[in-house]
Amino acid sequence: MKADKYRFTVPDAMRLGLISGAGAVLVSLVGMVKVFNERGIIAGVVSLGQIMILLILLIAGYIAARRATGGSRWAGLLQGGLAGLAAGACLAALVLLGSVINLRAMFVSASPELYKILTFDQGVVTGAGILLVVSAAVGVAGALLRQLPSRPRRTVIVASVWMLTLGLLQELLRLTLGGDAIRVFRWMFGTGGQKGLSIVGAVLVFAVVAVVHYQWTARNVNPRAWTRSLPPDRQRAVRWGSLALVALILFSLPNILGVYLSEVANAIGLFVLLGLGLNIVVGFAGLLDLGYVAFFAIGAYVMGVATTTAVGTGSGLIVYSPGFNFWQALPLAVLASVLAGVILGIPVLKMRGDYLAIVTLGFGEIIRILAISDFLKPYIGGSQGIVGVGVGQIGSFAFDEPQSLYYLVLAGCLLAAFVSTRLKDSRIGRAWMAMREDEDVAQAIGIDLVKTKLLAFATGAAFSGLSGAIFASKLGSIYPHSFSLLISINALSLIIVGGMGSIPGVIIGALALAGLPELLREFAEFRLLVYGAALMAMMLLRPEGLWPEETRRRELHDAAEGGESEPASEAAVGTN
Amino acid sequence: MAILEVENVHTYYGNIHALKGISLTVNEGENVTLIGANGAGKSTLLKTISGLLHPKQGMIRLAGEDLAAYQAHEIVGKGVVQAPEGRRVFGRLTVSENLEMGAYTRVDRSGIADGIEHVFTLFPRLKERHNQVAGTLSGGEQQMLAIGRALMARPRVLLLDEPSMGLAPILVQSIFETIVQLHAAGTTILLVEQNARMALQIADRGYVLQTGQIILSDTAGNLRQNEMVQKAYLGMA
Fold this sequence. Notes:
The complex is a heterodimer.
Chain A: H1 10-29, H2 32-36, E1 40-42, E2 46-47, H3 48-67, H4 73-100, H5 112-118, H6 124-147, H7 150-168, H8 170-184, H9 199-219, H10 223-229, H11 232-284, H12 293-307, H13 326-345, H14 353-372, H15 377-380, E3 386-387, E4 393-394, E5 397-398, H16 402-424, H17 427-437, H18 439-444, H19 449-475, E6 477-478, H20 485-498, H21 503-519, H22 527-541, H23 550-561, H24 568-572
Antiparallel strand pairs in A: 1-2, 3-6, 4-5
Chain B: E1 2-13, E2 16-27, E3 31-36, H1 42-49, E4 57-62, E5 65-66, H2 72-78, E6 80-83, H3 95-102, H4 109-122, H5 124-128, H6 139-151, E7 157-161, H7 169-184, E8 189-193, H8 196-202, E9 205-210, E10 213-219, H9 220-225, H10 227-232
Parallel strand pairs in B: 3-8, 3-9, 6-7, 7-8
Antiparallel strand pairs in B: 1-2, 1-4, 4-5, 9-10
Helix pairs in contact in B: 3-6
């Protein structure tokens, strides 16, 4: 930001390079490079593992060139190259070190295969040399990218992202497109078991996206402004038309996606439900709840106990079930979660911030431990869980496989999204917002804090319970291990990534945090690492979330623009 | 007619006896000030009146009705509204939205719109900035907004807790001018201030609070002349 204040010097570039080099060494040593090397992006040319390393080097070059503004064009390129070279040197050092000492005693992933990837399979010394040259070149490329004018730069970035994404998801594309379509597009993909796009395919994707994007930005069309320029009746037509289109797409999605992707969509949908619920508690009302999984578990267990057919005294059976069907059990599950929400809510009415977080965290653990305990084993199955959970059915249409279950999940999500939207702009939504901003003032303007808080907990719990109930029916069985703290953390992360308090943000967040790991199975092992990195990056680059709520966007951007008055913090602090 | 009556109120913070038998009255249309040093119990008294603290003994009546049975948020609905100490506007909301939030207890839409217009005539500054995020207002503007927000609840008694705190002298002046204006428009005010000099200049009557007890009560003019008050609160030798 303050590039003009100091000259970006050679040592700065070296330092930047070393930092990114350390990052590259880290992803190599934790094994990401090796695992991701299996997934080709462009068949036979470059893999995801290599892309990761290259991307780090590219970013180093880009940042170096950005910091070097003010100097000449050549200085920028030089700095970028230096940063890339320094980063490459770190990797080369790793390779050389690895060839002398056996690092595997400490770093399991420091294997010959890793070195092969890093040295382009050319032996240690030659390979290290090539690595250095490539690194410097990539650094220069990053600097070049930075020096492009902003419009072509965007075009290059967007086109590259498209190419990468299609390469990454090519297996799914093949699966989705199916038999006939794939024959037409065969030339786009790698042949003979090689993964990724073919070279021709990659170039084509890049070219097409680049041309379309460049033309599109030239026309500078803003869909929203365009809609607003229309006469009111046309506006309405556009709105209904797009709504109908979205509805049509949503409705026909399982047929387009096929079984596997429908399963992924269901997993995302359940997280959307969880996220929408937690969004009410955390995003709207500002009550940090870390034990949110408890309500999910309660919903699932009520569904399980109420509908299971595995009743008896033997192993893996529970002693009693009312033998309800799915539709009888569903409201019961939601009701039980709401009740649990109120029960949790009452003792924590007077708690705020960190204290509330700790207590709710404990509540989540209590529920999980109860579920796993021998004490309740005869009734809810203990660590063996409950099998034979009922399936929803309307007439002869059963929600028993991913493509049909999708509609149940969709209905739940639509309901939750509708309720959330309506609540947000209602009186109670206002009360939540006031409470989130300042509890004391909320009370001073006449808001009943007890009622408002309990309503937030109860509504949030209801969505979570609904999600849990569908989850139980989806799996057909429940195990206490499914209800770990990680679910709460996932739900919280997805609303942070999406944008606190924003309903579309929840959906985007769920797609990013629940969808991507499903699609990129290799990531599973590194899920937490990626989460942590993604959250840090979010906080630094886009703290308001991917699709922020209006007031938050305002806070983080208007404050910077409306520079005429004193900053908020200064006015608010120093009064007490 | 007395609209707010506080009668022999004792309030405790745990074991600490913070208010030791306070009695005061505010008449309809009056501007009454409560002065006292740090820790005298001014804020405690306001909290007790607005229902955030419950007195162990004594009674608080609004237009003859005992308030003991009501919760804090219900008391706001009854018409005892506080502009809290330290302004505390909703920093992320715009000026207009803050005012709308102040009308939370009301359901008459047209009345709320009129109320906002009324606040804007009182504070033209706020009208200029009605779309600005409150957190970016200056301290004085935030204080105006806090008072405006309290007015939105249509108070029968407006409680002002240290409105001059942390403001530049010129802004203090303008805030007090607004209070005079509010009073002239018929608002009943109970003003709690450390700035005794200013408060006694604009109030009708005053109470002096010291360590949880009222040690003096008189017209503001008489208090200004009172030797003890001059010495302890007005800084005159």
